[in-house]
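Today's session is about reading a structure prediction critically. Students often jump straight to the picture, but the first step is always the sequence itself: look for stretches that repeat, for charged clusters, for runs of hydrophobic residues. Only then move on to the predicted structure, which in these notes is written as discrete structure tokens rather than atom positions. Here is the chain we will use throughout the hour.
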Amino acid sequence: MPVHPTQAHLRSTVPVLASLDIEATLRFYAERLGFTALARYPDYGIVERDGVEIHFWLTDDPGIPAATSCRINVDGVDHLYAEMSAAGIVHPRGPLTDQPWGLREFAVIDGDGNMIKFAQSLDPSSQ
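Below is the predicted structure for this chain, in token form.
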């Protein structure tokens, strides 16, 4: 749908999550979740996988990431679940489940405590 130049149009979103140690966070996402580190700064970091970016800001409060989450919509959630299960990082209370809100999803907890949910629509026409 073309956007008239005088109208706003949202295009994408980038989660910005808390990190207790930027270098350790980027390493976790690269080694355990298959992301690539794009940028490292003393108090900020960026990772990317398949065109999806996640940014991180440095905090010394472990309560912030423990209370934070984001969802990443994916294609092939069953394959990604198998990948994450083999890596041993699926949250014990976040197994692959069909949810009543129309998503098939699972969760991992990163090294800082942020919950990352990976989800795919159960409606094949929306994929």
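Discussion point for the tutorial: The helical segments are 22-33, 63-66, 77-86.
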